[in-house]
């Protein structure tokens, strides 16, 4: 019995040694809730690496929105992701490679963790947990966000404040570089994943994944895939999305506005042309009326003498009677002298309105209207009034 005791102690020490090595390896390889611990003097830090990201509905199905989240351009994502058209929409779960700069950052006096510094502006209803799990798809944790932002209160975030979200990443060490692992891609292990399928996705061996991350990989853990070069992702064929109803309505509004403006312009030109034509016609008529009026004035002046007075009066009376007899069945004829005397020579004091004057003949008062030489049209209108009012119409064609 005494001889077996040292042998038993040796076996126990060996088991404890293996267990201690396993714990150290697992804690060193597997990121905890606060991130992957690192040494600031690590020579491979900082480094350029990538995180694996998936397009997700409803807000992250285009490279522009995802680029804004990571402060990148669309081309910086489309080129490593093997996407030929950066403006094309994404399908849910479409794979992407997001380039990040990974470095070892001190979070307090005794600890440093490896992460990519991504700045995010808090919006309404945002929390550390929601943003970490939904927007950044578990590439970080809310515990790590709290650790990196010690001055912020998670339950009282101000809209518009800038928050650092530490995206878990890792730079390869010298041994990994010697094994041609030039990059360590950050990948969030999904509930439907297994190591074999993940290895097939990145074109690596399963042993290379377990060597870096251990065998105790759980869903939503961030693991690191060692690759010698960035694999070409197999992208689905995306058909451009049809125009949204909002865009259709905007196009309809623009089209309708254009048609409306065109019709309005046509109507303006048409109305303007008709107005000009009317003005031109009226000006021509006024000119003709002015010429005829001058002739009648000259004729009247000539008829003032005894020689031509009888001829003028007879001719004028016959023409006036022809107009009157065709329109009115009740009328009286006064001479121009009587009319002038009744209106005091068409004085302004006798003016009622327009070309209508008040006159007194033989003690009776009349409304006397100056008319055109051809008074037929005006008489037809006045004839309708005659059926209501029993009045006489005294017409005069001479204008002083």
Which labels suit this protein?
400 residues, alpha+beta, five-stranded antiparallel sheet, 43% helix, NFP_LysM3, membrane, Plant_RLK_LysM
Molecular structure report:
This protein has 400 residues and is an alpha+beta fold. Among the domains are: 31-227, no CATH class; 329-389, no CATH class. It is built from twelve helices and eleven strands. The chain has helices at 4-29, 63-70, 74-78, 128-135, 142-148, 174-178, 195-202, 206-213, 245-303, 306-325, 336-342, 376-386, and strands at residues 36-37, 47-54, 95-108, 111-121, 162-168, 183-188, 222-227, 351-353, 356-361, 364-370, 395-396. Strands 1, 2, 3, 4 and 5 form a five-stranded antiparallel beta sheet that branches. Helix 4 (128-135) crosses helix 5 and helix 9 (245-303) packs across helix 10 (306-325). The longest helix has 59 residues, at 245-303. It is rod-shaped and about 160 Å long. Residues 184-226 form the NFP third LysM domain. Residues 114-168 form the NFP second LysM domain. The chain crosses the membrane at residues 253-277. Residues 1-29 form the signal peptide.
Pattern of helices and strands: HEEHHEEHHEHEHHEHHHEEEHE
Inertia-based shape: rod-shaped
Number of strands: 11
Which residues form runs of ≥5 with pLDDT under 50?
A: 18-31, 302-312, 387-400
Q: What is the radius of gyration computed over CA atoms, rounded to a whole number of angstroms? A: 52 Å
Question: What is the tally of helical segments?
Answer: 12
Oligomer: single chain
Helix content: 40-55%
Major sheet: 5 strands, antiparallel
Portion in beta strands = 15-25%
Q: Whole-number average pLDDT? A: 77
| Cα distance spanning the termini | 159 Å
Structural class: alpha+beta
């Amino acid at each position: 019995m005494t001889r077996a005791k040292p042998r038993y102690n040796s076996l126990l020490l060996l088991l404890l040694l293996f267990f201690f090595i396993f714990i150290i390896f697992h804690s060193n390889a597997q990121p905890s809730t606060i991130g992957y611990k690192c040494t600031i003097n690590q020579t491979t830090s900082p480094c350029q690496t990538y995180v694996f990201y998936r397009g997700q509905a409803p807000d992250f199905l285009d490279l522009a929105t995802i680029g804004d989240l990571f402060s990148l351009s669309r081309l910086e994502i489309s080129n490593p992701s093997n996407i030929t058209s950066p403006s094309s929409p994404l399908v849910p779960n479409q794979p992407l490679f997001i380039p990040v700069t990974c470095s070892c950052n001190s979070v307090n006096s005794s600890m440093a963790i490896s992460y990519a510094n991504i700045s995010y502006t808090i919006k309404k209803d945002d929390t550390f947990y929601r943003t970490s799990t939904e927007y950044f798809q578990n590439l970080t944790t809310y515990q790590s966000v709290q650790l990196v932002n010690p001055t912020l209160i998670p339950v009282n975030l101000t809209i518009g404040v800038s928050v650092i979200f530490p995206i878990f990443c890792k730079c390869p060490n010298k041994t990994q570089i010697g094994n041609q692992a030039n990059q360590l891609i950050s990948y969030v292990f999904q509930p439907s994943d297994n190591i074999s399928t993940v290895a097939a996705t990145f074109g690596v061996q399963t042993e290379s994944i377990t060597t870096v991350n251990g065998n105790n990989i759980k869903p939503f853990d961030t693991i690191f895939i060692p690759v010698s070069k960035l694999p070409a992702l197999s992208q689905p064929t995306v058909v451009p999305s049809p125009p949204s109803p909002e865009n259709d309505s905007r196009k309809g509004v623009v089209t309708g506005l254009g048609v409306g403006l065109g019709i309005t312009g046509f109507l303006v030109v048409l109305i303007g042309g008709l107005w000009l034509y009317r003005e031109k016609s009226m000006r021509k008529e006024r000119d003709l009326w002015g010429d005829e009026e001058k002739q009648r004035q000259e004729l009247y002046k000539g008829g003032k003498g005894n020689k031509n007075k009888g001829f003028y009066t007879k001719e004028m009376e016959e023409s006036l009677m022809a107009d009157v007899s065709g329109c009115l069945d009740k009328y009286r004829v006064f001479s121009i002298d009587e009319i002038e005397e009744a209106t005091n020579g068409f004085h302004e004091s006798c003016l009622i309105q327009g070309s209508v004057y008040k006159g007194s003949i033989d003690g009776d008062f009349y409304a006397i209207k100056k008319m055109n030489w051809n008074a037929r049209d005006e008489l037809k209108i006045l004839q309708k009034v005659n059926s209501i009012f029993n009045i006489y119409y005294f017409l005069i064609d001479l204008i002083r």
